[in-house]
Specification:
This protein is mainly α. It has helices at about 5-30, 35-75, 80-95, 95-110, 115-140, 145-160, 165-175, 180-195, 205-225, 230-235, 245-275, 275-320, 320-340, 340-350, 360-385, 390-405, 405-415, 425-435, 450-475.
Length: about 475
Amino acid sequence: MNLVRQLKEVIISVLPIVVLASLSSLLLGVMDASELCRFLFSSVLVIIGLTLFLSGVDVGLLPIGNRIGSALTRTRSLAIMLSVAVVLGIIITIPEPDVQVLAEQVRRANPAVDQTVLVWAIAMGVGIFLSVSLARTVLHWPMKIVLFISYAVIFSIAAFNEDFFVSVAFDSGGATTGPLSVPFIMAVGMGVAALRKHDAESEFGYVALSSIGPVCAVLILGLVFKGDAAAAAAGSAEAALTLGALMLTKFREVGISLMPLIAVCVVMQIFVLKMPRTETIRMAFGIAYAYLGIVIFFTGVEYSFSDVASQLGSALSAISPMLLYAVGFLMGLAVVLAEPAVMVLTEQVEEVSSGRISKKAMLFTLALGVGCAVVLALIRTVHSLSIWTFLLPGYALIMLMMIKTPGLFSAIGFDSGGVATGPMSSTFLLPFAIGASSSGASLSASFGMIAMIAMMPILLIEVLGVVYQRTLDKKGGR
């Protein structure tokens, strides 16, 4: 367990946001000295929590995911494989930090939406579509066809939903691709992908399809939900807990959320995996690290981290929308440039393109795209624009581009939609937009930030895929 390496990565990811928020808040008078100390302390908790959590995932949950994926490949029954995938998708999503943070933000904005029901709807969506992604690999379904059908269903259901639930639904698709679910889903998927060793496309798309499920599930929830978001939001304020009481609350909540996952791991170990004792103990310590990490992370987020983001968004919006957009753009750049998963993605694209699409060019393109996505989300918030104004043309262009995009790049592109939506998106950028909405804009319009950030990488990688294909065609024509 390399805690030092993980700590460096998390500091690089969180520190730019902390510096930008601190400087902006001090200059605008959002925080005094004591509030700044509280914010910095909560930022330290966020860093420590993420470090312990990610280290625990690497040591405890990722190896189990790999072994479960390998065990599934030895199952001759497709029904058993898909049933296990549904259960795994559900239990790995419930404790996902990004999902819990999003659900909490939705509850604060609209207390009429039950947080537990929302989390379970998202988790069931992940489980069902994780099984779809595994079925795609085993049954050799073309990725593009599955994506076309899935998004046709999504937009058909969305047409009958309110803007609030459409925004939350697409946000949930980005939130599920967090630091817990992505490694586990990829580990299970890669084990099943071993059935098609020579098909590079089968190694991608698991995260993409798994993130479609929550969108569908939340949209279906929106069809049956009855409640007034605007009226409910007025009574959303709640008394702040002391640090100790908050941490004890998180210990209980996280423990309940992790219990199903731990139970499944124990059952799989006893009846299927049967790992050696030393390896089992090592993984148990990893899960304990992850548990402690999530508790500390949530404590830091709710103690001050997200509140400062909301206050800063409100102050900037009241002073000048242009200043709000400028700071938001810088935060978007900071989030994507500091995200370790983005570095992995850029190296991946450089490799599959045989160096024709360089890592630097990819990184610059993604950073610019995410920065613009944050600005677009803030423009929607300030002017209370419909989410359809952005999602409909965006995904229409993505679907059209997919026709010309190589299949491998389409799979990578949809997988990458969750790469940029790391923990900072749900814990800081979303509250930042919610704060901006408090200056007179519609509160429901503040959601959709994560959806915008998730959409841009898909489009950008498709563009790069088309460029790559044309380069190959020109080279072949000579």
